[in-house]
Amino acid sequence: MLRATLKSALGHKLRLMLTAMSVMMGVAFVVGTFIFTDTIDKTFDELFADVYAGQDVIVQSHSEYDVGLGVPPPFDEAVIDTVLGVPGVAAAEGSVSGFAVIYDEAGTAIVPTGPPTLGGSWVADERLAGNSELRDGREPSASDEVAIDARTATAHDLVVGDTIDVQTVNEVGTYHLVGIVGFGEADNLGGATIAIFDLETAQRLFELEGKYSSIAVKADEGTTSEALTERIQAALPDNMEAVAVADEVAAQTQTMKEGLGFLETALLIFAAVAVFVGAFIIQNTFRIIVRQRQRELALMRAVGATGNQVIRMVVIEALLVGLVASLLGILFGFVIAWGLTAFMDAAGFSMPSTSAPLTLRTIVVGLAVGVLVTVAAALVPAVRASHIPPVAALHDMDITLRMSDRARAIIGGILLLVGTGFIVSGLFQALIDIGPLNQLTRVGIGAVLVFLAVSLLSSNVVKPAATLLGHRSVLTVVGFVSGLALVGAGVGLVVYGASSGLGTAAAMLPLALITAAVGIMAVYLGLTVVRDRFTPSLAVQNAVRKPRRTATTASALMIGLALVTFFFIMGDSIKATAGRAIDEGLRADYVISANAFVGGFSPTLADDLAQRPEIAAVTSMRIGYWDLEGTQQMATGLDQTTADQTMFLDIQQGSFTALSDGGVLVLDTVAEEEGWTVGDEIPMGFAGGLQRVEIVGIFTEQNQVQPYVVSLDFLMENASGYGSDLDNVVMVKAAEGVAPEVSRALVEAVAADYPNATVRDQAEFRASQEAQVSTMLMVFNALLFLAVIIAIFGITNTLALSVYERTHEIGLLRAVGMSRSQVVRAVSWEAIVVAIIGAVLGIVVGSVFGVVVAVAMASQGLTVLSIPVLQIGALVVFGAIAGLIAALFPARKASRLRILDAIAYE
Amino acid sequence: MVTTVPRTDLAAARMTAAVKQYGQGETAVTALDGIDVSFESGRFTAIMGPSGSGKSTLLHCQAGLDVLTSGSAYIGEVDLGSLSDKDLTLLRREKVGFVFQAFNLIPTLSAKENVLLPLLIAGAQHDAKWFDEVVGILGIGNRLSHRPAELSGGEQQRVAAARALVAHPAIIFADEPSGNLDSRAAAELLGFMRGAVSDYGQTIVMVTHDPVAAAYADRIVFLGDGRIVDEMTHPTMEAVIDRMKQFGG
């Protein structure tokens, strides 16, 4: 039996290859995500181990709440004497850290997008320096000397002996570059630029005279880290703490991993989509395989195989396909991980050359996902195969092995209801509450069920949809529009290539030519409809002759495009909401924002602007993390004295100025959910300790702020951390009567000294906000593209099998006068019709998802629902193009069929 | 035999020194081994021979479905070997009709669409009067809206025959057209084909191994081992059976 299975599996290489491909890509995505996140984890493990190598205990101020990127506040340097006095301490040295921007030799600031720009002090005692090592030069030892990280040095051609500028909170200084520093194998710390000064200089530059950020301690030989930690802790005052280095490394690594946890979750969700789409393809393939092999299977039954043996045969074949595909997927996972790493590297996040670890978990999960999904998807066709009666060996009979239409409709309807229930319960928790599953999981399960339901029910719409699509004018338009889109894309590629240099142009040319060629083919298809009505009508009839097969094939494409549509609607709604927030909530003329996720620029910028007569109001804003009964929250700290002139939050009760005494303004939806009213006190846990803060007002429009707003002074007193002394955003309102050109020039001139501050007027600010959303959308859609590619494979696969089934028919058509080009066109139109049905189903399902989720998120600030009709409509064209590409191979194959095969019957 | 259409001495199709080999070297099989044959216009020719005699290969090569290894095949005065695949396709579409033993019809198309298939493919208008006449003679007028799966075997072959006729082809090739039919349905189909030749001057070349079917023809060409071994004109069933006995077929 096994031998028979193996033989039949090997007998259909192409079919298996295409099927395996859809499994492989899903598995590769899963495995790639794991390898990538493992690499990040490993990187941080090694990074922190390197940073703290040689140290045993860290002494720092005690923070009750470990929130966000908060680091403990600085403390008096006199503490070092206490530490040095503890028996067992071999060496101890204090250090400080702060904000510093390095300039290259041309005077341009080096500001990575995202990672921070760090400043630090040189650790003089080699025993405490960890794996930080001088790659070149010497340590900074004078007030005009600096050392920088190796990555910044190589990326910007800075070498020892250069003279460079470095900006710190209050000044831009000129320094001699005396040293290049590496950190173990890494060239920098997670993408940050680092400038290192001698301790005294660093303390002055970071405004930490007489203070330390932390003290590193080395234990005597024979004294354990734990024992020393306890001893030092006992000697320290209450607001200080000693932490064993191993614990500190673990804690820091954990914080980083948690910070990046969302990345793993997001990537795995996209991987799950790819696997899910793959499952559709597998199911369809096995269904067709069983139909094709009906006589063979019936013969096996006739010679004595039991139904169970037939099931086993199909399942073993699925097992083999799943296994091989999973193994290939694991290999291909390295490519995906490499791609993700390259992407991070391009974004400035230096990943050391440590090889991506392949853990047992990765292999097990990859194999399990691939094999289980393949077998599960093949199970239904396998059971159907076991119902083939032996008599089917004698004639080619069409046996109804499937669910009746009624059963399909009922099951589809039930799935739809249950799925909708899950989604609603996830989105509107108040309406239905089903146990412990979290909201995202519920929505996810609901979406899966809805997709299954639509795929079951959609076989009913295949016929009317295809008939509608088959109308000549529709086909002509489809051909022309998608063709012109492709030709345009081809020309665009060439223009883009030419604009970015000859080398790029040459690299782009083949892709451009292929794109344009497919485009011309589409236009040709559109043209031929005018004089050849028969070919498209044959294609449409072929598309509807197996409505379920068509429905399953189209459903695979539906899933990917439904999610694209969903993201289009969400993205557009977010843009529209942001736009409204700017229109209604932004009273400032200019917004100066830091181009970094955290931290920002020196408050001297705001101070300087505030003194100019041309400026009416300047509002500094910063973000702080705090803890609300175990969950991390963010608060905006702002200058409450000027906020009224620069922004509008529609404060219902209270006012900005009420913040002066240390209260908090809360967003109305949050207050409602928590049952808070003005006058209540809420517990806000900051790094500096727990504060009970009175609610002094409720605001209804969350424009440019977090749901909690406090005064800048309050935030600085309580939240500490990297960049807490820096402004993140500064809103500027020009004085009445000052011409825009004048105020703009002034603001630009002042901001010019702050390299990571960008000045935008209202329109530019709006555009930048929209650009952020667009970038995010692009990343999401790029990830979904994999699912779409798998779906295209599915269409190719189904078509190839259909062509194979219709060998006789195609041969007959060729014999009675159908030309090769007509055969190509018939297969192409069929693919296009199937793909467009998938695209339209996807658009419908995705639009419903999008609208429902957007409505559900209204309470979370998504107040405008906006549907980008053109973008979504373009997906139909995209679907047509996907179909055309899917058809290329089977159409060619069909046109090359030997005519005599039609007449050569067995 | 009375014909209303004037005979022409021009052959509707012919082959000269036709050789067809399958495979290469040691394993090469010669299906046609130097055939010279001509099929006259307005006549019904049957090709007979035992299995493996090359009769189907002859038909395929003569009809432009397969290509000769050497020698020439003509339809009218057109040398098939000189045509591109595209021109060959157009020639089949315009000049040739086919009736096969099985898989004659496109299952998604109605009987009417199947009859009109060559014209639909060409995007040409059909001659409504001729269509009605053909359909009427074949007795499928009331089956036109049905799909092939809803037709009996005899009806399916009659639809195929109607398709072969409807475009006024220069020649019709039939490959065991009655092979899958019971004797009554076979007689109906062959009677119709005979009528198409006698009444309308149609040219038909038919491959068969059935003496009953062959007896409907004006002339029989006997094939053996890829060569023409005999010919017979105005055959009767008995004569055909006698002749076949001589060959041991």
Structure characterization notes:
The complex is a heterodimer of chains A (906) and B (249). In chain A, 57% of the residues lie in helices and 15% in strands. Chain A is an alpha+beta fold. Among the domains of chain A are: 193 residues, no CATH class; 160 residues, no CATH class. In chain A, a hairpin with a 2-residue loop joins β17 and β18. The mean pLDDT of chain A is 84. Chain B has 249 residues and is α/β, with parallel strands linked by helices. Chain B has one domain: P-loop containing nucleotide triphosphate hydrolases (Rossmann fold), CATH 3.40.50. Chain B has nine helices and ten strands. In chain B, β7, α7 and β8 form a beta-alpha-beta unit. The N terminus of chain B is likely disordered. Classes of the chains: A alpha+beta (906), B alpha/beta (249). The interface between A and B is medium-sized, with 27 and 32 residues.
Determine and state the CATH class of chain B.
Alpha Beta
Number of separate helices of chain A: 26
Q: Based on the structure given, which CATH architecture of chain B is correct?
A: 3-Layer(aba) Sandwich
Name the average pLDDT of chain B: 87
Q: Specify which chain pair forms the largest interface.
A: A-B, 27 and 32 residues
Q: Topology as H/E string of chain B?
A: EEEHEEHEHHHHEHEHEEH
* Overall spatial form of chain A: elongated
- CATH topology title of chain B: Rossmann fold
Q: What is the share of helical residues of chain A?
A: 55-70%
Distance between the termini of chain A: 25 Å
CATH superfamily of chain B: P-loop containing nucleotide triphosphate hydrolases
Oligomer: heterodimer
Q: What percent of the residues of chain B sit in helical stretches (DSSP H or I)?
A: 25-40%
Beta-strand residue fraction of chain B: 25-35%
The biggest beta sheet of chain B, please? 6 strands, mixed
User: What is the β-strand count of chain A?
Assistant: 25
